[in-house]
Amino acid sequence: MAGKRDYYEVLGVAKDASDDEVKKAYRKLAMKYHPDMNKDNQKDAEERFKEISEAYEVLADKDKRARYDQFGHEGIEGVFRPGGFDWSDFTHYGDISDIFGGFEGFGFGGSIFDQFFGRNVRRGPQDGRSLRYDIEITLEEAAKGTEKDVRFPRSSSCSACNGVGAKRGDYKTCPTCKGSGQVQRGQKRGFTSFVTITACPTCGGTGKQVTRRCSECGGSGVIQTTSTISVSIPKGAEEGMRLRVRGAGETSKDGGPPGDLYIVVHMAEHPLFTRENGDLWIEAQISFTQAALGHEIKVPTLDGEAIVSIPQGTQTGTVFRLKGKGMPSLRGHASGDEFVKVTVVTPTKLNSEQKEVFRQLNSSLGDYEKGEHRKSVFRRFKERF
Q1: Closest-CA residue to 221 (of 169, 157, 173)
Q2: Which of 62, 157, 226, 331 has its CA 20 to 30 A from that of 15?
Q3: Cα torsion angle, 176, 177, 181, 185, sign
Q4: Residues ≥6 apart with Cβ < 8 Å to 112
């Protein structure tokens, strides 16, 4: 990731920019760097356009942006295809009509692959649809890492017809595209001419037309199955973390590569610990006597118990730190810490003998209970200032 520019810098927005501000910044830069607006420097414009689109892909997505904010470029490794961001990674197609609303004269409005740079773009077989699977793990599983079997429905190539869709290979060359799998359409907008090449609508881009459909898949070439795969959850996994399993999604209907499976990790609520990034928080109750005289208490950690020394005069709300007893780091850095917040519990049910002991204690404290210690503090403050 060395040399890669900060995404906020790329779009020229602050780190706390709203979704609307991110979208407006992208629209402005898209208009500026569209290749048709930079005829004399089209190659550089295309590279810049791709860079701002990559930044928008991350910052316009809540999960990707959260991971990027926490871990930087390393946090989104695996989100894009090998080699980095590709146009097939761009998932915000629903925003196209809004973002590129001002580009109607430049050929936008169709597929981003067909008309992206306003010139001939050949479309090959399309990828299969990607799938999402949500999985819940415990805090202990996240701390140690775990393997989970994921069972999910998906489409796969029909084994009866090898994905062709024809019974015993009964198909012919498509009369519409003459076997090429593509059709082209010319159009002119303003001073720019376009030739849009798309998959043939008759054969779906296969170049073949089925004469007798496969009885197993009904001519679609795919069947619905249930798959089970084993997924490795790394140490330090966090809420909303996405794991990408390449090729485990839906089968392409026109011979393209299968889609991917995205595993979204969710953390189950823990009965004792509260997690804040890599740190853990836990509350511990101590008695009035333990707080006054000091004591050693045992507190649970993710790998057993630890001893916390409570000094004399400890007050409710005091926090003690157990260094390195928190969650491991996803990036291999030092583990987080565990923080123990103590609460002094006042006894509610006292017998007569205990009440008398407390009365004697109250009497022996004397001026302390009457607030004389606070007065002395005030006097020292006045004397000093």
Answers
A1: 157
A2: 331
A3: negative
A4: 87, 90, 93, 96
Contact indicator for 261, 249 with CB cutoff of 8 Å: yes
Tell me how far apart the alpha carbons of residues 290 and 81 are, in angstroms, rounded to a whole number. Answer: 58
Q: Is 109 left (phi over 0), alpha (psi -120 to 50) or beta?
A: left
**pLDDT per position as a tens digit, 88-121:** 677 665 554 444 444 433 334 344 444 444 444 4
Q: Is 158 helix (H, G, I), strand (E, B) or coil?
A: coil
The amino acid sitting at 173 is: T
The per-residue pLDDT of the chain, averaged, comes to: 79
What radius of gyration, in Å, describes the C-alpha atoms of the chain? Answer: 32
What is the Cα–Cα distance from 163 to 206, expressed in whole angstroms?
11
Per the CB < 8 A criterion, the answer to whether 108 and 31 are in contact is no
How does DSSP classify residue 200?
Answer: -
Instruction: Give the residue carrying structure tokens 């390449």.
Output: 246
Q: What residues form DSSP beta bridges with 203?
A: none
Closest CA to 244 of 255, 256, 229: 229
Token code pair at residue 216: 């197993």
Q: How far apart are CA 308 and CA 317, in angstroms?
A: 15
pLDDT, position 300: 95
C-alpha to C-alpha distance for 371 and 253, rounded to whole angstroms: 82
Structure tokens at 371: 């607030």
DSSP characters for 96-134?
HHHHTGGGGGGTBTB-HHHHTTSS-----PPPPPPEEEE
CA angle 125, 52, 185 (to 5 degrees): 40
Around Cβ 122, how many Cβ atoms within 10 Å? 10
Residue ranges of alpha helices (H) inside 145-215 are: none
Give residue 311's identity as a one-letter amino acid code: P
Q: Is the pLDDT of residue 62 over 90?
A: no
Q: Name the DSSP class of 221.
A: S
Burial class (CB in 10 A: 0-12, 13-18, 19+), 155: buried
